[in-house]
Amino acid sequence: MKIILLAACFLLVAAEAQAVSRYDPTRMSCDRVQATIARQGAVILRYQSTRVPGLPLYDRYVRDERFCNMGEVRSRAYVPSADTRSCAVYICKRPDFDHFRRRFFPHRH
């Protein structure tokens, strides 16, 4: 019984991971990239690095913090698109509390 329950949990996690759509933003206008993220909530954007030829870059981009894991916040990022080199989008990331502390309390360790 425990094995069946464990297998069902793994299937649910796998199905959830497969549900995120993948796109190449360099084949879309910036407006279309942003509209796709807004419509779907979260997408994977995959594109080639401009600094290292042949290196694929990818990340999960979100509409708002509801699509982030607990403890993460929405942070602005930029991806290339068909009509611009820096299309503004959002990713989820953990807050950098050390950066906050250094900025507001520079002499405390």
UniProtKB/TrEMBL annotation:
Residues 1-19 form the signal peptide. It comes from the Bacteria. The keyword Signal applies. Keywords: Signal. The keyword Signal applies. This is KTSC domain-containing protein.
